[in-house]
Amino acid sequence: MSRAVAHKPRRARRLTEAQFLRLPDDGRKYELVDGEAKEVPAGHEHDVIGAELIARMVPAAKGRGYVAGSQAGFRMANGNIRSPDVAFTLKERLPDGKPAKGFENGAPDLAVEIVSPNEDVADLLRKIGEYFESGAKQVWLLFPETRTVNVYTAPFEVRTLSAEEELTGGDLLPDFRCKVKELFEL
What we know:
tt1808, chain A, globular, alpha+beta
């Protein structure tokens, strides 16, 4: 006589930071969120916009800090590992004034996310909150579809800049400025 046995679905095991680091490189970008490797989709246009912003930020950052692209990881206060599309970190916040060989502790001073049309708004708002909880001073959201930039100076303090307005680095990057539309001219 055979008997049917009901099996409980297995819960996915939470990844540790060390396990996350050892995941094989499949050419896609991931963040560690609540113990799971979460794919962060990006296309070619997305990367080109990021490269344009980096090229404009680097001269303004010389001597003040470091600009990084989407491969840099930052350990948030809640343990998540986030990789903004573009990041700027002041030298004075880094041990010995140099970038870490692994993940940085805390958020960059400025985190920039280039928003894809299919990106979940709740996920974006959560990221913004994590960046500020972990020490960010500003978060920029770039919207290629509308050619606008949302500049956050706190989780709920946002200013939307249109294509004709000037984006500046404020106190973080006083020498950085460009028209918003210039970031989206492909």
